[in-house]
Amino acid sequence: MTLAIAAGLLTPIAIANMAQAATQLSVDSLGLQSAAGSLTDGICVSTVGTCTLRAAIEESNALNAAPGEVAIGVDPDFAGGNIAISTATRMRTTALSAANGAVAGDASGDGSGAVYEVTAPVTIDLEHKITIHPAGAGDLAVAPFHLNGPDITIRAVDDVWAGETSFYIGPKAQRVTLDDLDVRTGTYYPERFFVVRGGAEEITVSNSTISGFASSEREWNWGVVEGTSASFPVKGLTVTGNTYLASDASGACNGSTAAGCTSTPVEAYEQHITELEFTDNVAPNINRSSASDARGLDLRYASVGTLKVSGNTFSAPYYRARQAVVDLAYANLDSFEIIGNDFTGMSGNGDVQDNAAAIMLPTDKRIGTGGTIADNEFLATGTMNTQAVYWDGLEPTDSATNIADSRVSIVDNHFDGFSTSASRSGIRMLQTGVVEIARNTFGSRSGSQTNTVLEEFSGNGSVAATLVSNVNASANAKLNTWWPTARSSANVQTTPITATECTVPLEVAPPADAANTTDYTAGRYPGVPVELDVYWTQSNDAEVYIGRYDVAADERQTLQVALPMPGDELLETNNGVGPVDPISGAVTGGLRVQTIEPLSGSTSSSSQYSRVAVIDGSCRPVLTIAQATTQNEETHARDLHFTLTSSMQLDTSTVTSDDFVVEAKHATSEGLDGVAAGISTIDADKLNPRIVSVSEIAGSSGTQFDVVVRVDDTAQVTVTIGAGTVAIPTGLANITAATTGSESATDNVVTFVNPITAQPSRFTLVTGDERGKKFTYMLAAGAPVPTEQLKFPTSVAQPQGTPKLSLSTASPVINGGETQSNAVVVTAAAGDAPAGTKTTIAATVVTGDSNYDGLLVPDVNPYLYATDPIINIVKRAYIEVGDSSSAQQIEATGTPAPRDSRLTDGQPVCFVYTVSNTSADDWLTVLRDVEIIDSDERLGKGGVIGTVASLDSGDSEKLFSCVSLIPVDTTADGPSSESGETP
Fold first, then answer.
1. Where is average pLDDT lowest: 291-295, 371-375, 562-566, 720-724?
2. What H or E segment, with its residue span, contains residue 767?
3. Residue 973: is it exposed, middle or buried by C-beta count within 10 angstroms (0-12/13-18/19+)?
4. Would you say the C-alpha torsion 894, 900, 904, 908 has a positive or negative sign?
5. What percent of the chain clears pLDDT 90, i.e. is strictly above it?
């Protein structure tokens, strides 16, 4: 046989072993002939010229080479088939063992012995091509293989069986491995899959599939350990990764069928073994199809140094009488680990005894150096009237002062469906000393007391349906437990304990508290410091373990119990169900505690479970939103601050600007908080409300967020946040929209008042008047002082054909630190325009100051007139005036100078100015502080004739000035007026 192996490639173990072997023997025949010729030349030749399995084994035995030097395989060109073994072709004809019954038959009676006997190092890999069994039903008293030497591996050999043991591993076996086998018998005649004799060392059975075989408690089993004495033990057996097949329905197990056959994977009743590992195996339906004495592991009365049972799946085993899945009754154990196994779908008949269990620890025995039962799952179908774990130890009875360290812990397991009988418990301890029983959870089908006060204590030596039972005073000294004070010893709780922000303030009291009338006075009272394990239950079990709390003082105190949220891994033992409803966030169920008392030894003492305190409340965040406490009701500040407050810490990644709805509408300032009244929205269609930032408020631990909003003009701004928008870290979102306060200072409404104004924003403009009119861009009082220049690019809109408007500057500015621009002079070219023609000066603001950039700028509207539509001044000259003390006396005593008349030099003349307020309609106004100036500076005081303090519409007032004429045209420029009044 030639094998080519590419450089750098990893190959399967079987191929690698074959390739590495110096001598490779390839079977090409199903015959039973022995070897011919030399047995040490490394050539496999039978008496008929073929290479039979027997010839190859005889060659290997004779070579007796070093481990890994010899390999037996199948010729690549050989199709394989069944080797029909018989007693006539045995390599060994003498009895293999007589211990524990006739394990391999009797040489003189049934032709016992072995068809193949392997005594030297070899790897036999038949690649699943060859089966080995009799041609008939299998009632052939012979063992197919006797393995009795060092470093032997049997791999990929299928359906190896006869009427006795398929693989008999003898006392001289060392480092023997059975791997990747598939052996399924058709009847119950084959009695055992393997036997390991005392003296054998480091035996491994792995990755194989086994079914059928007989079952007879101590004699017929899938695997048998035969270490008959302490001086002749099995020195190490590992059974790992195997699948044991048994029917899940009723069926017969007889000479015609193996459909109902079920057996024990490893039976070591009364045997001695130094180390036993049973790991990662699958063993379904043990005892299910037919009444038998099968167990998962039968180590009753055995002596075991180290036992490891981990990663196995025992699905749907069936209890019959006192059969345990892992039965250690009366065994002598130095140490054990039963970790990470699944005991699922367990059920049983009605005769299960009250001291039966899925795991039976050594009866009337102590453990040598320690043992652990941890991280296992025990699930019964429906309800089971038996225990899951039971130990009846060796400590003296009724000794509450006996706190002997058992060095055994039963922790982190999950149970459901056990202890439903009135005299059963999920975990039952009797005469064990101190056993740590902690963090175990019990599903809703577990047996317990409806009156949970009774769960704390059952009479000394009595049994009851409890989750955990320290039956008598020598089991954990019948430790009394701390208890939730919300439920009295009379089993009365008036109101639930309400969770606040998903945390329950659970008051607990020591068992000696005066209000507790159900403590067991003959039992042990825990000292301090002490540890309390807290559990949640929907009713009266302990479905979810929440956590451990340290208590330093022997007095009432309140534990702040944070409830696990949907999705928390703590809920995995209860199919994700816990105290908080994943939809509504409602809190239901109750809390109970278990007392764990650290002692001087390595093991802590454990109580039974306490009474249950009912809880309620909600774990959904409740939101409010309001203007920030520092936010004014009306403000010129651009950033409007609102505060989102949650009743619970939020996942900050869920709080984003998209969560909020911002609405803005037309508003007029009311003059609140120092803001001028009467400033209104310029354009409600251009408010552009938006969230500019959302940030967690420092020190709020995720419960408060600053929401900053901006708009581009005066507006009433409202911020809301709907249901289902933000969530706490576990994913529960707010179930309702955020609420807000009813008072203006606490509601979710703020009015922004645009601080940019134009003064005046409306005025008349007389065409052709070169002096024009002035306006200024100004910031309202109290507005933020600009940090950078505000630039106002302008544009003019006016009806076609009207006299053109001109501005003294097209882009006025307000410099940083200032509050108004320089005055902008607006003039209109000469020409006619319909009275009151509206024109518009529009502007935007451009700046790097975020308080102002993008704000709307009010329009400035000059109205065109050919003459001033607001004030009229008539100037008349009087001569020969007799009394010049007033305008009225001048008119009464003087003579009006005729129009176009010529007056003489030096002739005295008085001028009367009639000032009239002609404003009407849109321009209706009261004129104030109207100063009349004549172009002749000899009149009045330097041309100032006088001032009219106030003049209502339609009213007029007269002013005057007298002077002697000189030969100059004093009417060339005509009269003028200036008014500080805004139209």
1. 291-295
2. none
3. exposed
4. positive
5. 72
Average of per-residue pLDDT across 262-272: 94
The rounded distance, in Å, linking the Cα atoms of 935 and 971 is 8
The CA-CA-CA angle for residues 328, 334, 336, to 5°, reads 60
Query: Which one is predicted more confidently, 601 or 125?
Result: 125
Does residue 760 have a cis peptide bond before it, meaning omega lies within 30 degrees of 0?
A: yes
DSSP state, 259? Answer: T
CA 96 to chain centre: 61
Spatial separation of the C-alpha atoms in residues 957 and 939, rounded to whole Å: 18
Residue that the structure tokens 């199809």 belong to: 289
- What pLDDT shows up at residue 922? 64
Half-sphere exposure of 743 (CA within 13 A, CB side): 3
Q: How far apart are CA 339 and CA 312, in angstroms?
A: 9
Q: What is the pTM of this model?
A: 0.75
Angle at 278 between CA 178 and CA 214, to 5 degrees: 65
Return the ∠ at Cα 423 (arms to 418 and 428), rounded to 5°.
60
Is pLDDT at 974 greater than 80 in this prediction? no
Cβ atoms of 337 and 303 closer than 8 Å: no
C-beta of residue 845 within 8 angstroms of C-beta of residue 855: yes
Q: Is the Cα torsion angle 389, 392, 396, 397 positive or negative in sign?
A: positive
Euclidean distance between CA atoms 318 and 323, whole angstroms: 9
Q: From CA 537, how far away is CA 543, in angstroms rounded?
A: 5
CA distances from 267 to 221, 270, 816, 918 (A): 7, 9, 95, 124
pLDDT of residue 461: 67
Would you tell me how many other CB atoms lie within 10 Å of the CB of residue 336?
Answer: 28
Which two structure tokens, joined as six digits, stand for 326?
Answer: 């892992």
The candidate with the shortest Cα–Cα distance to 25, out of 47, 48, 8, 45, is 45
Q: Which two tokens stand for residue 828?
A: 């209109």
CB of 481 closer than 8 Å to CB of 518 = no
Q: Which residues pair with 559 in a beta bridge?
A: 506
* 331-345, 578-592, 680-694, 917-931: the lowest-pLDDT one: 917-931
**How far is 435 from 597, CA to CA, in rounded Å?**
11
Dihedral sign, Cα of residue 527, residue 528, residue 531, residue 536: positive
Query: Is residue 762 packed enough to be buried (19+ CB in 10 Å), middle (13-18) or exposed (0-12)?
Result: middle
Token pair listed for 224: 């048998």
